[in-house]
């Protein structure tokens, strides 16, 4: 894959810098990883992965915001996490096992991703010594980040939860529908509107 556009090269650098946090790679190994990647564009509301289907890709979000969501036993849609730019987005466990997913990964805004098919992801792991260790650290980091963001939501009151959300996802509240923010926080949209009004006062 050749990137000529300056903006594209800059985005690739973000991806390379991200993975280099988790281990060392030489220029040939980085070139191999980039050669296995494809770019994908998702329009707002399109799905990167769907419940009932086997996840096809591991993605790195170059631009945009996605969310993980599912339907509970009352058929209510629940948003349980958001992923913004310069982070991996995947249903990793089911992707690796090639099992049917139980949740959705949906684009909240128009998104641009760097994606790896199962075949290409496996080829990277089979070619680069130490890649599996790096992959494990990346997955662990993603899980830790999600847990750190979720855990305060259990014990805090609704206003504190919203303030925590703003500090963890600065700027995201203006890009995400309030109904999804409310679902993530475990409150009604009316409660969220009240909280926002009180904070503005």
From TrEMBL:
SUPFAM superfamilies: cAMP-binding domain-like (SSF51206)
Species this chain originates from: Chryseobacterium indoltheticum
Protein name (database record): cAMP-binding domain of CRP or a regulatory subunit of cAMP-dependent protein kinases
Superkingdom assignment: Bacteria
Domain Cyclic nucleotide-binding: 41-124
């Amino acid at each position: 894959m050749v990137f000529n556009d300056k903006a594209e090269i800059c985005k690739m650098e973000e991806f390379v810098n991200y993975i280099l946090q988790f281990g060392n790679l030489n220029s040939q190994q980085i070139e191999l990883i980039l050669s296995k990647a494809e770019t994908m564009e998702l329009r707002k509301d399109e799905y990167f992965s769907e419940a009932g289907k086997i996840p096809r890709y591991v993605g790195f979000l170059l631009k945009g915001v996605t969310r993980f969501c599912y339907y509970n036993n009352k058929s209510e849609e629940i948003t349980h996490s958001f992923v913004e730019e310069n982070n991996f987005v995947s249903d990793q466990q089911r992707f690796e096992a090639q099992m049917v997913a139980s949740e959705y990964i949906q684009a909240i805004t128009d998104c641009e991703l760097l994606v790896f098919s199962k075949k290409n992801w496996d080829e990277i792991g089979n070619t680069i010594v130490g890649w599996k260790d790096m992959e494990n650290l990346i997955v662990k980091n993603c899980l830790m980040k999600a847990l750190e963001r979720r855990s305060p939501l259990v014990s805090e009151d609704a206003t504190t939860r919203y303030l925590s959300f703003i500090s963890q996802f600065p700027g995201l509240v203006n890009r995400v529908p309030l109904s999804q923010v409310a679902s993530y926080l475990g409150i009604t949209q009316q409660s969220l509107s009240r909280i926002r009004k009180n904070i503005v006062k």
